[in-house]
Design a protein that fits this description.
Radius of gyration: 20 Å
Strand order of the largest sheet: 4-3-2-5-10-7-11
Strand content: 5-15%
CATH class of the largest domain: Alpha Beta
Helix content: 40-55%
Distance between the termini: 15 Å
Structural class: alpha/beta
Length: about 350
């Protein structure tokens, strides 16, 4: 049944592309701006149909150097969000967990944050729940492009998949937290209700590697990692920054570790980088601004993206083009999120 559903969803996406292929915008000037207007409206439809709550892990020392840049860029793409820190700050906004900052306490921070989000936001109409670091950049539109084909009532856990054996003998495939974790409503519910407070299924202490422990708890209630790769097997969730992806010499120590954890799937060079990246990690604030500019603002004269290239020679107005496309997008959204 799941295979049939996925086939149906991908068929609908194909229909979107066919609709785009039936007409070409009959505009002589400012062609790039016209495409931007159209896809901004499509982006708004995705925003309404694929609702995402964002939980961001931070500390008070990163308020200006990281958080301020996230709020100027991709955080606006979350339907709602909250930061978790050791200090309460209504201007972010952030909730506070009174514990020492640091990687050793990351698991405790994640547990506290997820319990807070579940108790205060799960009953609201959010389809997906994103967990990310304060030095991560997320393309929310590309993330929604992935999620629009998924059913949030099924136990999905999306992210960059790695494998690690803990010192205590536990071994599990888990999502590397640097690239972000995305939980469906069903996965989130299973974690809170059936795993979090069960010592046989979940680490009850506050210390430990947060990303490993989260995946371990989820795996024990039937929620397995879904690797966010494209059809060329290129990772769309990236636990490193673009410079690390392009050249192994940029950060050799981290790169060697990632290559081992990903079982050899971490490769370098432009041809191994995805057309529709979802996330990058280890980013200073200035690099977040640069990525935001390159992904969302910059144009090259005469160049169109792969979606635009599917437009045929048949002419139609911008509004007709938009209406036809939005009909299919709305239909797709309604089919995916009715149950």
């Amino acid at each position: 049944m799941l295979i049939i559903k996925n086939y149906f969803y991908y068929t609908l996406i194909l229909l979107i592309f066919i609709a785009l292929g039936f007409c070409r915008l009959n505009i002589n000037k400012n062609t790039n701006n016209t495409y931007n207007e159209v896809f901004t409206k499509i982006e708004n439809v995705l925003f309404k149909n694929v609702s995402i709550f964002c939980l961001i892990l931070t500390g008070p020392q990163y308020r200006k150097s990281r958080v301020s840049y996230q709020k100027r860029t991709w955080i606006k793409g979350c339907n709602s969000y909250i930061y978790i820190s050791s200090v309460y700050d209504i201007t972010l906004p952030s909730i506070a967990l009174k514990m020492k900052e640091g990687k050793n306490n990351l698991w405790g921070k994640i547990k506290f944050g997820l319990k807070y989000v579940f108790n205060n936001y799960y009953r609201k109409p959010f389809d997906w729940f994103l967990i990310a670091d304060d030095d991560t950049y997320i393309s929310m539109t590309n993330l929604r492009f992935l999620l629009i084909t998924k059913n949030t009532s099924l136990p999905y856990h999306h992210g960059y998949k790695v494998r690690w054996r803990h010192d205590d003998g536990r071994a599990v495939q888990y999502v590397h937290g640097g690239g972000g974790d995305v939980l469906s409503r069903e996965a989130f519910k299973r974690f809170i209700r059936y795993s979090l407070n069960n010592p046989k299924k979940c680490n009850q202490k506050g210390n430990g590697a947060g990303d490993f422990e989260l995946s371990y708890c989820l795996t024990n209630v039937g929620v397995h990692v879904n690797d966010g790769i494209d059809f060329l097997k290129r990772p769309r969730f990236n636990p490193s920054n673009p410079l690390m992806n392009l050249a192994s010499t940029y950060n050799h120590k981290f790169d060697k570790t990632l290559y081992r954890l990903s079982e050899g799937r971490s490769k370098h060079g432009i041809r191994h980088m995805p057309d529709y990246p979802i996330s990058y990690h280890y980013l200073p604030g200035e690099m977040m601004l640069s990525i935001h500019y390159l992904l969302n603002i910059v144009n090259v004269i005469g160049k169109m993206n792969s979606l635009s290239k599917m437009l045929s020679t048949k002419k139609c107005t911008k509004q007709t083009f938009l209406n036809e496309t939005l009909i299919y997008l709305n239909s797709l959204g309604n089919k995916v999120y009715t149950n």
